[in-house]
Amino acid sequence: STILNPAPHSKSHSRWLHDQDNNPAATNRDFLRHDINRVLQQRPKSFETFLDGLKILGYSVRIGKDISISK
User: Rounded CA gap, 56 and 58, in Å?
Assistant: First the structure.
């Protein structure tokens, strides 16, 4: 048998819980996404300026092989 109309990839459990009407709690990723959007609304001129905006909001930014942003 074949699946004619496969469902798109399911949501993570935390995203699914967030989307439920009875549990509107935001995830850490939601907070980070919101703060990134706040910094981007200021239209930073460079990536460094963007990272400085995140630092002003209380985030720690580490740049190595990868970029790590934590609060």
Answer: 5
